[in-house]
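Let us work through a complete example step by step.
Step 1: write down the sequence.
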Amino acid sequence: MSCKKCASANERSFKSEMSLAFRELENVDRAPLYVSQDISVCLDCGHVELTLPPAKLELLKREASRPHTQRRSAP
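Step 2: predict the structure and record it as tokens.
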């Protein structure tokens, strides 16, 4: 498979752990959403691609649609 950004064939898959957090200042006290997922990295241009698991995507959608005062405060 080739990189979608630079068309290089120099891509590799890696295990990853990341946290997703809302950027707004009023959300600074909100717990992030932790995701462990494989990612594809182009070793030529640095483009990274991943797909969130369905359960994490649904949780992210729910959190994003809640008013600030109703968002969860612990994982």
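Step 3: interpret the result. Residues 11-70 form one domain.
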